[in-house]
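User: DNA polymerase III subunit delta'. Structure?
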Amino acid sequence: MSVQQHYPWHNSTWQRLQQSRQRRHHALLLRGRQGIAKLDFANRLAQSLLCQSPLDNGDACGQCVSCSWFAQGTHPDYRLLTPEQDAPEGAEAAAASGKKAVRKSTQISVTQIRELAGFLELSSHQVDGRRVVVIHPADALNQTSANALLKMLEEPPANVIFLLVTSHPQRLLPTIMSRCQQVEMPTPAEAEALAWLEQQGVQDAANWLAYSGGSPLQAAEAATTGNERLQALATRLAQGQGLDPFATASEFAMLGMEEVMTALQKWLYDLLAISLDTQPRYHLNSLPALQALSKSVDLSELLAYQRDVDSARRSASHPLNNELQLEHLLLQYSKLFSSKART
Ligand SMILES: [Zn+2]
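Assistant: Predicted structure:
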């Protein structure tokens, strides 16, 4: 948690919040699409709220004792609530299967909210007594923990500011939403995102930004870590009818289910777009292969398959079944293409 990086697409939201500083709500819901650094924004705001002598633009000074606590990640009046590592269920299941626990809990538990209540009962360490709680992602609250949090939002402890962060506001309880001031964070314009990516030294920025659906952070990450894996996926999928579902499934399973399913969904989106004579959006590096495949695909079968993949993803099953599920999906995939081109 060193110096907060400032992203150009945050500027308008930052200025708007500074203008309304005097009538600040005790709970803000920062919402916007995945991969635009909402958590960084929340932390920047948290640091500035705790800073003893903020700058004119509202940013933290970076010099005071509060800022130095914040930079070290030890600020006593700041809490970040996020799903805990190694959920007990995950650990048990992993122990039973003899595998190492690698699954991260996806929920913020009621125990975590109770601990938060305990923290908020104590008095703050600073003169003005302000404390900041960041909840990320707020959609990780389950029914019980959300209700426990709701009680706090309904009767907020003095001088506590809650910053809830989410890419999926529709998954929050309406009662939680209604207790928060909504702060809609914009997705950067393409030119802005590209300029930022190029500044970060990302090669081939336009392609990665397209693949990541316009999210600059995901594009930067995909460009640094995902390049080879993505190429491997695209190479296999480009084989169409000739793809070996069994060999490919075991290869894909090692890449991680989440990434494979995302790549597959985007691949199908593009295949459909080309078949319908509209613009493909994601796998722009594989256009010749997609065009070739589109000539031998049956449109109604493709649509049905796309629905199967979407529902397979939603039901994201146990990790042990991943390879089996992939075999099934890839077998279906290879059958989408006929040996002779359709007219
Ligand atoms: Zn400061």
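Confidence is low (pLDDT under 50) at residues 86-102. The radius of gyration is 23 Å.
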